[in-house]
Amino acid sequence: MALPPQDERTMPAVVLQDVDKRPLEQVLAEMVSLIEQHGHVIVVCSQAVPAAVERRLHTVRSILESDRIALFRPELPPLGIAVLARQLRQLASCDLSPGVLASAGRLLTHYLHSGALLGSVARLDRVPVTLKSHAKSWMPGSQFGVLAHPEPQLVRVGPEARLAGPEFGTWLLVARGQLQSDWVTGTLAPAWRVQGVREVAPPAESAVWWGTGRLIEFCAFLPDLSVLYQLVTSVRQGSCHWCGIDVIGDRCVFCSATAPVTPQRQITAG
C-alpha cells in the first residue's frame, strides 16, 4: 500500500505488483530498471504477504548478485508498514546516503504506535490473547482495542478501556475495515492527544494480519520531515565492514553483514 504524499517533498513510491505471480523475467527487468534509475532500492514488505513473495524477492536479489537491494520486513501491522514506507519516502528527499536511509527504517519503527479496533480476537495470533478474551470475542457486540507495536496491549472496549499511547506529539492515521465504531476517532485519538486525524483505505493485508476483516486499523506517527531528519542524523553513523556503505546500527540492510565483535581487554589483578 502506497500512502498519498505527506508533503510536497515526499518521493513517489513504486508498488511491486504480483511479485510471486508474474514471470520471473518481468520482475527481474523491473528491478534492474529501478536500480538503473535510482542506484539503490529499498523494498519495504509486510510480514502478512505470502511466503512466496519473500522467496521471489530473495531470488531476484540473488540472481542479480546485487548489494544495492535492501529487503526490510519489520514486525509492524500493514498500516504501520505503509506509514513507515512513507516516512522513508519523505527522508529520501534529504541528503542521506542510501545505507543510512535504509537503516533509518529500524530506528523509525520505535516511534510508531500501531494497532486496531477488532470485532473479534478469535483468530488473532500476532498479539498475546488470553482465554478469557477469546471467550468474550464470541459475545455479540464485543470489540477489542489492540496495540501491536511498540508494546503489545489488548483491552475490551468499554468506559474504562485505555491503551497506552505515545508520549510525544503525533498524527493518527485511520483505515476503516468492515467494523462500524467511532471509538478510535472519538475516544482513542483524544486520549492520545493527537494533533490531527486522517483516514485512508485499509491495506490489502490487514484482514490477514489481524485475523478478521471486522476492524479499524490505526497508526500514530511523526509527520514532520524536520523531526524525522533530526532523529536519523542524531544517531552515530558507521561504515559496513563488508560492503563499505554508510549505515546506522549494527547490521547492514544491503549486504546483511553484522558489525564485527570487538574483543574486550582482559584485566588481571597483579
Tell me what you see in this structure.
- The chain is an alpha+beta fold and 270 residues long.
- It folds into two domains: 24-111 and 224-247, no CATH class; 115-221.
- It has eight helices and ten strands.
- It has helices at residues 24-38, 51-64, 78-91, 98-109, 131-136, 183-192, 206-210, 225-233; strands at 41-44, 69-72, 113-118, 144-149, 153-156, 171-176, 197-200, 215-221, 238-239, 246-247.
- The strands form three sheets. A six-stranded mixed β-sheet has the order 5-4-3-8-6-7, sandwiched between helices.
- Helix 2 links the parallel strand 1 and strand 2 (69-72).
- Helix 1 (24-38) packs across helix 2 and helix 3 (78-91) runs antiparallel to helix 4 (98-109).
- The N and C termini lie far apart (63 Å).
- Residues 265-270 have low confidence and may be disordered.
Summary keywords:
single chain, 270 residues, alpha+beta, 6-stranded mixed β-sheet, two-stranded parallel sheet, 8 helices, 10 strands, 31% helix, globular, disordered C terminus
